[in-house]
Each structure stands twice: as C-alpha cells, then as structure tokens.
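Appendix B. Extra example for self-study. Work through it before the problem class; the solution is given directly after the inputs so you can check yourself.
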Amino acid sequence: MNFASDNISAVHPAIMEALAAANAGAAMPYGYDAWTQEAAEALRALFETRAEVFFVATGTAANALALSAMTPPYGGVLAHEEAHVNTDECGAPELFTGGAKIIPLPGDGGRIAPEQLAARLAGFVHGEHQVKPAALSITNATEYGQVYTPDEVAALSGLAHEAGMGVHMDGARFANAVAHLGCAPAEVTWKAGVDALSFGATKNGAMGVEAVIFFNRDLAGDFLYRRKRAGQLLSKGRFPAAQMLAYVKDGLWLEMAGRANAAAEKLAAGLAETPGARLAFQPQANEVFVWLPRGMHEALQAAGAVYYPWRESRDEVMARLVTSFATQEAEVSRFLELAAKAARAA
Amino acid sequence: MNFASDNISAVHPAIMEALAAANAGAAMPYGYDAWTQEAAEALRALFETRAEVFFVATGTAANALALSAMTPPYGGVLAHEEAHVNTDECGAPELFTGGAKIIPLPGDGGRIAPEQLAARLAGFVHGEHQVKPAALSITNATEYGQVYTPDEVAALSGLAHEAGMGVHMDGARFANAVAHLGCAPAEVTWKAGVDALSFGATKNGAMGVEAVIFFNRDLAGDFLYRRKRAGQLLSKGRFPAAQMLAYVKDGLWLEMAGRANAAAEKLAAGLAETPGARLAFQPQANEVFVWLPRGMHEALQAAGAVYYPWRESRDEVMARLVTSFATQEAEVSRFLELAAKAARAA
Amino acid sequence: MNFASDNISAVHPAIMEALAAANAGAAMPYGYDAWTQEAAEALRALFETRAEVFFVATGTAANALALSAMTPPYGGVLAHEEAHVNTDECGAPELFTGGAKIIPLPGDGGRIAPEQLAARLAGFVHGEHQVKPAALSITNATEYGQVYTPDEVAALSGLAHEAGMGVHMDGARFANAVAHLGCAPAEVTWKAGVDALSFGATKNGAMGVEAVIFFNRDLAGDFLYRRKRAGQLLSKGRFPAAQMLAYVKDGLWLEMAGRANAAAEKLAAGLAETPGARLAFQPQANEVFVWLPRGMHEALQAAGAVYYPWRESRDEVMARLVTSFATQEAEVSRFLELAAKAARAA
Amino acid sequence: MNFASDNISAVHPAIMEALAAANAGAAMPYGYDAWTQEAAEALRALFETRAEVFFVATGTAANALALSAMTPPYGGVLAHEEAHVNTDECGAPELFTGGAKIIPLPGDGGRIAPEQLAARLAGFVHGEHQVKPAALSITNATEYGQVYTPDEVAALSGLAHEAGMGVHMDGARFANAVAHLGCAPAEVTWKAGVDALSFGATKNGAMGVEAVIFFNRDLAGDFLYRRKRAGQLLSKGRFPAAQMLAYVKDGLWLEMAGRANAAAEKLAAGLAETPGARLAFQPQANEVFVWLPRGMHEALQAAGAVYYPWRESRDEVMARLVTSFATQEAEVSRFLELAAKAARAA
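Solution. Structure tokens for the complete assembly:
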C-alpha cells in the first residue's frame, strides 16, 4: 500500500527489455546515435508535427530548461502558486533562466483561471521596475490531479500570446492527462497554443528520461548549448532514447497511464463511500486528495499505508494518494478496507 | 575500429544485471532507497574514509556541482587550459557557481606544474578587482591520458590549501589513473589533499552515473540543495545506485580500466614501431595521442578507423585514440596493421 | 504640487557644498580616500557599533547586495509581497544572489506580522525540494509609509534567527522611520536583531548614495568582491562619501526626514477632513495613501497635481502622495484646497 | 607627483557647475527628466547617428551590461588577456551575462591582432561542448595606452561579424584614443563596425558617469530591464546626465584628454632621454609604461612619486604612469628631474 508517489514504481518490463536490446556494441555518444534520432521521430509522429525534441534526465531539468528558452533573466514566469516549478524545484528555474522570477497565481485544484491570469497581467504597468512577463507555465495534469481541457489550455495560451509571452506545459503527468481526455496529444498542446512541453516518462514507467519538446521551433535555436551547460547532455544517448522509444511504442505510455488513472478512480470511488472521508477533488488523473478524519489517518498509517499528508486541520488530514501503472488492485482494496474499518470504529 | 571516445562503449553486463535486479517492486524515490545508501557505503569503504557521496547523471554535472561547493560566484577556479571544465562543458562550471571564472594554466600533457600554479597565485595582488582564487581543479587521468602521482597531487594541493583554496579532482577517468598507479584510491585523493572528487563511471562501463565525493565533508553541507536545483536529483535513485554498486563490486571498475589501459598501451607500442608515426605522449591511461603523417591518417580513415583529429600541422595530424574495457584486440591489431601498411606505402 | 516620489527632489544645499569642498586635488580611488573612511566612522558613531559600511549608487543595489551576503543561490528571502525587493527591482535580488527566490508574505500596510512569518516558515518541510529559507527582508518605513517599532522588528528578527536566517532591513526611508519613532537608530536595527541595513540617503536629499551597513560583521567578509563585481565600486569614492558625511552631520538627515513627515501629516490631516476622501492608512512617514473619489482625482490631476494612482476601484482611486524635505507648504495647501473644492463640487 | 590612475583626479569645474545648475527644483526620476533626454541627444549628435544611449555609474557596469546585451549565458566573449573585462572587474561580465566565459587572447600592448582572433575562432569546432562565440570586446585606448586605428578596428570587427558575433568597445579611455587619432568619434566606432561602446567620462574629469551607447539598436531592446536589475538605474537621473552634457559640450572631453595625452607624451619624451629607463611602448594615450632600473624606481618612490609597478624583473620595475587633464606640468618636470638625478647617481 505505497501511494507516496508514482516514482516509487519500478520500470516497465518492456522498457527494461529495450535497454538491454540497446546494449550491443559501440554507438556514437551525445545523441549522435540511431536510437536518439528514432525516438525524436517517434515523438514527432505522436504529436503530428515537426517539433524539436531533446532528452534530459529529470523533470526538474526539463521544466527549468524549457523555461530558460523563453524567459530572459529579467523575465517573469507566471505559474500556479503550487506548481512544481514554484514549490518543488529548489529554484531550478531561477538557476537555468539566470534569475527570472516566478510569479505565483492562485487557483483551485492547481489550475489557473483565465481571469486570474488576465488580472495579473494587467498589473505590469511599471516597465523596467518590474520583471518582464515572459512565460506562462501550466501543469497538465495539475499537482492536484486535475486536467486542463484543450479549450482551457487555449484560453490561457491566448492571453499569454497576446501579452508576448511563451507557453510552457509541465507534463510530468502528461500521459495521465491525455489518458483522461482521450484526445490526441496534439489537441491539448500545440493546437491549443503550447510552445514547449516537458513530456514526462519517469513517473509513468521509465527508468529516468524526460523530453523537452519545442512545438515552437524558434525557441529551440540554441537549446543544445543550454542542455549541455546544464549537465544534461547524457553521453550514452542510446539509453534514454531507447526508454523513450519503448515508452511511446504501441501506446504503452497511455496504457500505463490508463491503469494508474483507473486505480485512482477506484480509490476515490471507495473513499467517497467511506463515512468521514471527503474527497478534496474528483480525481481526473492518478492522484487522489482526500480529507481523512485524524483517527482514520492514524489507523491507515499504523497498518502500513504509505502516503504524504498534504495539509492538516485540527480534526482532519488531507492525504495525497498517488497511483501508478504498477499499483496493484489488492493494494487499493486493502486500503479501502482499512479506511472502512476505521470509519466503523469511529 | 572505433576509438572516438570511451563513452561509445556499451554497458558492462554485470551492471546491466544489477539494473535488472534492482527493478523489483516499489522503492522510495530521491535517494531514500536501500541501493543509494549501500552504494554510498561501498564508496566510503573503497576510499577508506567517511566521505559524503552524491550521485548525478553526467560528468559535467559532477564537476560543475563539486566546484560550486567550494567557489563563490566571485571566485576563481584555476585549471589547466585544456581541462574539460574549461573547454568542454559549455560553461557549466560558470552556471553552477553563479559566474565564477576559470583561470587557465599552461602545462604539458594536460598537467599543471606546481611552479605554474605558484606563479599564477602570486599574481593575485589587486584584491577585489580580481576574482578571489577559490578552487584548484586537476584532472586525473588528464585530458592527454597522463597520470598525476600521489606526490604530484600533494604538491599542487599543498599550494592550493596554503592559498585558502579547495582542491577538486576531475576523475572522469579516475579508474584508469588508479589502474595505472596501482595505489589505493585514498592515496591519490584525500591523502594527497583532494577535497572533492568527481568519480566517473559512465566512460568505464556504466550506463550513466557519476559520484561527487566530498572527502572534506564541510563542503557537503548544502549539497542536497545544489544538486536538486541543478536538476540532478534522480527520482528513481535505485538505478544510478545499483550501477555504482556493481561498478565497484569485486574491483570491476579497475578490471575494466586495466583492460582499457592495456589496449592503449598495445596501440602505443605498435605505433611507436610504425615508421612515420610519433607518439605525442607515452600513454599512462586509456588515451593515445599520436602524430600521424597525413597519408597514414587518410588511409586509416578510408579504411573505417574512427577517431578524432586533435590538432593538425601541414604534414601531420595528431590523432586521439581512446580505448575502453570493450575495445577488442582485433580492433587494435587491425588498426596497427593498417598503419603499418600505410607506412610502407609512404 | 509634485508628490510623485521623494526622489524628484533636488539635493540639499549642504550636500552640494560638501561635494564642492571634496573636489580639490587628487585623492586615491576606490574608497582608499579620507572621506570614505570618515563617512564609515560617522555611520558607526551614529549607530553606536563597529559595523562594516559600504557605499553603493542605488537603493536597489544596496538591497540586492545586502541580501546576497546572507542568501545562497538556493536560498529563499521572505519578504512582504509588496516589498520593493519583490516588486520594484526587476529581479535585482535574484541576480545578485545568483537565483534565490523571494517568497511573498501578505500583510496590511506593507507590514509582515509575526504569525504570518511563523506560518510560512512552518511550511518548509520538504528539505532540498524547496529553497532553503535564508533571509527575512523587512522595509522600514514600509512601502505604505508605516513604521515598525523596535519591538515589532525584534519579534520578526527573533523568528528569523531561530530559523537560522539573517535579517535585512530595507531602509530606503529609514530616516523617515527614525524621525517618526524618535528612537536611536541602534534601537530599531541591531539592537532589534537586524543583521544588515540598506541605509538610504538619495530619497532624502542626497544626489545618489546609499550605504550597506553590516551590524553582523561576519556577513561582510567578502563584500568588497560582491560590490566590485556588481559594478558598484565607485572609483571616485570621495564623492559618495562626502554626500554621506554631510547627510548625517549635525542630524541633517533627521531634520530633512522630519520635514517630509510633517508635510505628509499635514496632507493627511487635511484629507481626513475632506468629504469623500478616505485615508487608507494613518501616515507614519512621508507617504500618504488616500482613496479619492474619481471626480476629485480627475480634478486634482487636471489642476496639475502629480502623483501615482496606486490602485483603483470603480468609483475611487487610491492615490500615493509622497513628500520630501523639499516639499513646500504652499504645495500642500494648494493640494488640499483643490481637494476641498472638488469635494464641494461633488 | 601622483600618477597612480586617472581617477585620482578631481572633477572638472565646468562639470561641477553643471551639477549645481541642475540642482534646482523637482525633476522626474529614473531618466524621465530633460537633462537625460538632452544628454542622449548630445551623444547622438557627437556620434552622428541615432544610437540608443544609457547612463550608468561605473565603467565596470557599462562594460558588463553592454556585453550582456550581446552574449547569451552560454556564450563566449573574446577579449585581450589583459583586458579590464578579464582581469579587473572581479567577474562582473560573468555576473551580468549570467555566466558567459571570457576567452583570453594574447597580443602586444593590449591589442588583439586579426590573425590571433581568426586563429581562436577557428578552434570553435565542437558545437555545444564549447561556449558559443558571441562577442568581441576591444579596448580603445588599450590597457597599455595604445590606440587602435579605425582600420584596425574594422579588421577585427569584420572577423567578428562574419562569425556572427557582436563587437563591443571598452572606451574607458575613449577620449584619449580619439584625441590621439584626431578622427571623428564615428570613424573609430560604428563606421568601423562597433555595435556597442562603453563611453567613459569618469576617468577624464566627470564625477561618476559612463554611457552605454548602442550603435546597433537591435541590441538595446530590453536594456532598460538589464540596467534596472543591475542596480544601475540612477534615480535622480538629471545629475549623471548633467555631467555628461557638460563633458561633451564644446569639446571639453577632447580638450581634457588632449591635455592628459600631452602630459604622457612629455613624460615619455623625458624618460626616453633618461639613461637606464626604457619605454615599454611609445604612449599613444595617457599612460606611460616604462622599465626603470630598481635604483631609479626606489629613488622616485622615496621622493614621493606615486604610481603602480606593473611588472618586475630582477633588475627592473615596469612602472605604469597615468596622466589626466589635471596633471600639472610641475609634476611631470619634477618626476623627470628625479629620474635624471637617479640616472646620474647610478
């Protein structure tokens, strides 16, 4: 019963096999290998556009580097106040942009509403005394497991582009968003105005690889330099590429995300029927946020359930439960049983 | 006959097996897994000291982050003018230190001589108008395949410490240096005054992992923050750690380096007897630098030999030939035969 | 009737005379002149402690450099959300700290309350995933012309120090705060836990000089380097120093600030009696924030009153009126007359 | 007899008068005053082109900010190894560019020769492993008091532009260069391919102001933001502007530089006839570099002559003697008499 994060999961067997298969003989380093070219092509095919594609080792690097390509050091990045780029990257965007400022916006469920964005943009009236608004970063699925639809993305992108800004999507859980939406990946990205996407794989079954995808290819001009000086040019490039190839082959990425989403749905459905438990949001991806009575929380932890308390009030704990492709039905059932038992005992 | 680099090689089978073995069930992310703890312990045992150990994805990241822990943004890093940190990292040390300046020193074979270091340090007489000398970075084995002995390291470290500076060793090919020296790893590092080591594994049989090892533990205080904001905190920490564990287990790392060094030695011995070819240096690690007559160079390339021309004169090309644990005897023999044939034809 | 800012004012004649007097013969550059030494001594005497004192050209530089001495690049600076360092310096603190993050706190009248600070500090539970809280920056007088008392400063400093953070005071209008408090400068700074002060002079009668004063001298170790690389080491050091000497001599700074405060008080008293106008805050320094009916605002502007609208609602405009030592009684009277006339017309 | 630097000099009386004249009444801050507009116009007239003009407080800031407008953080700045930007700014260019690397070039008398530049540019063959060459910075007059002619500047600029780089001229002593050349300022700047000029005034009679002049106006797009976040937006903008206006009015700047150059020439002529003394270079601006026998050096210092020893050999000291508009004939004569006396005594 480990719901601590999706990155506790192992690597999908198909991806492990791809790594083993790539481990044969010599291959030119630094991305000048066949796997890297093939994986980039596979992503272009998946997104139905001639995007520029770069692989990096972590999601934090993907986000921070993507932002650095659209934000000058005197720029501002508008993002949700609880966005990973603002709260969980220890200042990586500030480092890679050379000191840009992340400007936090409020919003329910990790979403930015167009009117919040518009209001904040209207406040940039002091010229060079303020940073220059340069990028909008939205997370899909959000940190609260909510999903922006293509229309919602387009509404935010439209405002950002009008203001001369670029649009970045943090897709650490992009697979879960697309699995929920059931749309083509293009619909919720470049067709909705996204200039650059951090396309996550690590949380969803890979060993450790993320892609920075520039739909707006003008932004990619010097990205090779940015990636290299960030220490993110992986010398044996065939291995991250082989992971990515296996990840998108035959829809494996969506199959895994679908399983994770289904597990979250099942958890949520069960908790919705558990007296005392209150869902904070209806999950749309692979995260369940649920307010638990303290007694239930303590009983669950005592029984070995692993998850992070996200917030607390006097009487309740908001638990974050993250599922993955590897989440077992038995884990979900056991968790729900324990919660039900605690509810009865209360 | 690919001698382009040591990172063209595949992953050693024992390391692939270790990755597969680690791929079982859930494990806490971000280094809070058993493999990470065990791998750090293994490195402490190897170096016979309570060092602080951190894993990162690339050698460039290892170097730049290690330097950032000992160099303020207004600091200077003294390094050989052809050191990787100065010429091949696209400014990563400048990025991670926040703008420190690398101050190049001359020296034969990629080595810094103590008198060169002393002379440069004597030039810091203008206080805050100059950067503050903060770190000495030496590469062992050097970019020219030469090896500093423990005494040589100690002489340089002594000067650096007297000047209040830290000492960093770029050990991208540390295994090759130790295999050549035949000494304990401790002898040529902390016992010789090294404060921090970039301990490379990727070029010598790993898939992609390097360790930053702080022998001077005072430097490691906030390194978790530095690594995270650099996008180098790998979420599924068991995989880099499992690589490193297998790498040092039962001396695999030295066995692999020994094989690479032997291949280089064989290449050098053969070339020394090839009329027209002139060794630039007697190789001490896994790199051979040899001046080839242009005709010989062209014949070799035409026959499919892959390597980088490092410098050129009118009549000669200095070739860099890099070997690895995976270099085949047949490749070496074939290369020497082709060179001999070209010599006869000349 | 120009209430746009305090830096619209000219230079006080005594300071102009000091500049002229300093303009005689040769003097060693870069602060190695007698004026610089004397001015530093004068500030030490004024603050009754052996502080380290450095002169810079602007308030933005003073703030950003002071913060850089207590905040690592992976650090966080807690500040009021409307603090100058957060909203009006175009990212200078981010630049000079190497990418630290300013973490905005709410608070009425530009003040941070201890409970707000404590609540935010309690949120730092994710280790290296978040920035490391490193500095608290408070502004006295605040951006809304409110003044922290020594006890209020001490309460905030206490929390910051407990959390291992340094305390910075932005004193762009420090003179106005002290003139209001009537206490010794030491009382509201180092005796209340302030580690570093940006001691402003430019807004209060100087031509262009600010001091960074480190009461905590450990922070000043390498500040000469920080200032030089920021382009803030003024070569003809006698001129900024001569300004500062004249500024504090015989209490000129407090006399000027007192005049500015009195003008603000008079404006506020008049507006309080003007039907329709509502003071946003009771002014404690040299700034009046007042909600004006739109008609009154338009009438005032049409009559030539110069000031910034700070916020707007449908029916009202919040005007910011800043006074200085050079504000004339006639300007104040004229403004109040115009407001009264507009009130009668409404 | 103080030849330590040109910034030991006081402010020219005409500039002091201009400051006093500007000190009347209120003026809008941050460059929105009439003086600033007028001074920018005056510089455009002087350079006969619609340049963008920005004032800053120091030469280091002017250089570093100008370079930041043409160099990305992963860029390289090619400069003479003894250029001020490389050796005397404590890493300011690295700070303001976000970590760019200065790549030192050799050259006699502080000059870069076209063949040296071409050779270095030819070494950029490793793509993103190296920094991207982005700017050429040349100093006129050089740190050794030598002057590039318009043709020499054009030759270097041509190479830089071919390589896609911008061209910056450090003109801390631009006045001395133009006084020597006798050409129009335009001839040796934009007509010779210079994109941005640091136009110095402080060393040549101002109190403290430098201009960054962008002849290539595309580079100036966001410079207001860069200057503000560098803490170089001087709030009472009329004062730096008034200095600059007086500086260029009626050719004052060239008159002062001419006097300084003449004093240097007289010193050099006298020393050339002093047995034992050897000029290192024939001075072309306001600096004399002369090898003095140790005994002569000691005698001069004992007699109160102030200057910096620039280099030393066993028997000689290379003295740097800097003159300014304020250098007195009597100082020069006295210095030469003392040298002659020491020569006779030897």
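Self-check: The interface with chain D takes residues 73-74, 87-91, 94-95, 98-102, 104, 126, 128-131 of chain B (CB under 8 Å). If your reasoning did not lead you there, revisit section 3.
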